[in-house]
């Protein structure tokens, strides 16, 4: 390990670089009251994340083994503070540019005053709200202000802290009850916690408020530039399937968001978006007029064989395989085989997991998703090698041509050809 001094000097050099930009552009230094680093240009954002990663590493080294572990095991109390703030909508009880007493927050939120004080002070440990030292009145910080003003941010917090994290408490119980080798989606922590024999999406479909929160949270999580759909255009040569008559099948394609985007970047490609009946019945109404002659919707269960003539050029799967254990993911890939021809391709657009440990704060997403997929679906994220094994297990004629992640993209494309 380098010395603390050399690590601190590397941090200092980066901090000076960012400060210089802020100063020359009259941008305030970041504070807990105001995030200003989003205003850095894209070429400085890498420095920003490198600074966050290296200062996090230095913090961990200076806290030491025991205190770092204490930070981990007590982190649930931080989450509890935030959950109480979220659940009782305490952020909305504080004026955006003023202050509120604990009694005023209690009166408008319905959480009694002593609990407001205790749990807001827990949250303040994470810089959620601040308290004026003399008056003891509460005012906003950047996080609490976001909670008061951005409903999708609140829904993202609610989904994680009220839906997924509580269900995750049953992960080990589910392994013990159903076996660690179970491939069944219902043998998961979510089902056990919710005492249901229905899969996650079916439970949500029957509960509009939970379903709405899930949809908004997904929109929030995927709104930053690393999720931008331009990366799917950069990941594959779409002009190779843009001849009149070329067809792309978007498997489990929902309302056809991806197909619509690619259609706008091609001239002739036609798209068939397949999904379950309840989705397909709603989807055409959401299609813009200019794409109606290029995108069709069809009911198709992706576990049943594809029987399409003429065969499509591409089967595309985004966010499908990571919801399923190997047994079912292999079955989905097998169902494509009857329609595969020489020259056909399968494009799998997913997060491709690093094959080893990741400690950088900004790169831990894949392993966080691992926990979520396990909890909700008894499923998993996969490394490039695991995608290859899955494809080979489905049919030895599948050949992975490339696994590409464009610069700046969270998602990768696994491009697969058919040796027919
Ligand atoms: C996580 S969403 C991904 C949607 C879309 N591919 C996208 O990237 O926006 C999973 C989709 O799979 C669909 N789905 C689930 N089970 C299915 C099945 N057996 N056959 C076809 N579609 C299914 C769901 O209705 C949902 O639209």
UniProtKB/TrEMBL annotation:
Residues 201-394 form the O-methyltransferase C-terminal domain. Pfam families: Dimerisation, Methyltransf_2. One of its GO terms (biological process) is methylation. It comes from the Eukaryota. InterPro entries: COMT-like, COMT_C, COMT_dimerisation, SAM-dependent_MTases_sf, WH-like_DNA-bd_sf, WH_DNA-bd_sf. One of its GO terms (molecular function) is O-methyltransferase activity. Residues 82-149 form the O-methyltransferase dimerisation domain. Keywords: Methyltransferase, S-adenosyl-L-methionine, Transferase. This is O-methyltransferase domain-containing protein. It comes from Heterodermia speciosa. The lineage of its organism: Eukaryota, Fungi, Dikarya, Ascomycota, Pezizomycotina.
């Amino acid at each position: 390990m380098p010395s603390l001094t050399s690590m601190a000097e590397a941090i200092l050099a980066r901090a000076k670089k960012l400060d210089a930009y802020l100063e020359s552009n009259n941008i305030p230094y970041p504070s807990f009251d105001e995030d200003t680093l989003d205003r850095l240009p894209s070429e400085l954002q890498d420095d920003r994340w490198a600074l966050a990663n290296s200062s996090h590493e230095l913090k961990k080294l200076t806290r030491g083994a025991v205190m770092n572990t204490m930070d981990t095991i007590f982190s649930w109390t931080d989450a509890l503070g935030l959950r109480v703030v979220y659940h009782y909508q305490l952020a909305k009880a504080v004026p955006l540019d003023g202050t509120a007493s604990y009694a005023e927050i209690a009166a408008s939120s319905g959480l009694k005053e002593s609990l407001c004080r205790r749990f807001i002070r827990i949250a303040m440990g994470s810089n959620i709200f601040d308290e004026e030292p003399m008056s003891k009145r509460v005012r906003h910080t950047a996080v609490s202000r976001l909670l008061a003003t951005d409903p999708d941010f609140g829904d993202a917090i609610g989904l994680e802290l009220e839906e997924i994290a509580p269900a995750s408490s049953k992960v080990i119980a589910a392994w013990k009850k159903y076996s660690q080798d179970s491939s069944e989606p219902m043998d998961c922590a979510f089902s056990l916690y919710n005492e249901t024999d229905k899969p996650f999406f079916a439970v949500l479909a029957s509960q509009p408020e939970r379903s709405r929160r899930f949809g908004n949270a997904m929109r929030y999580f995927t709104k930053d530039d690393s999720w931008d759909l331009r990366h799917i255009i950069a990941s594959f040569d779409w002009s190779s399937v843009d001849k009149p008559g070329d067809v792309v099948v978007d498997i489990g394609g929902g309302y056809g968001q991806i197909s619509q985007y690619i259609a706008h970047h091609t001239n002739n490609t036609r798209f068939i978006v397949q999904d379950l009946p309840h989705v397909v019945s709603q989807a055409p109404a959401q299609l813009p007029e200019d794409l109606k002659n290029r995108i069709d919707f069809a009911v198709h269960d992706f576990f049943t064989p594809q029987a399409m003539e003429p065969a499509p050029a591409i089967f595309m799967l985004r966010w499908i395989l990571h919801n399923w254990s190997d047994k079912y993911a292999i079955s989905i890939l097998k169902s494509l085989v009857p329609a595969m021809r020489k020259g056909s391709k399968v494009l799998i657009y997913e997060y491709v997991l690093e094959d080893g440990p990741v400690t950088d704060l900004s790169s831990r997403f894949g392993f966080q998703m691992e926990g979520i997929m396990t909890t909700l679906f008894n499923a998993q994220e996969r490394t490039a090698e695991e995608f290859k094994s899955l494809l080979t297990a489905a049919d030895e004629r599948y050949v992975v041509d490339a696994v590409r992640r464009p610069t700046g993209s969270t998602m990768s494309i696994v491009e697969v050809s058919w040796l027919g």
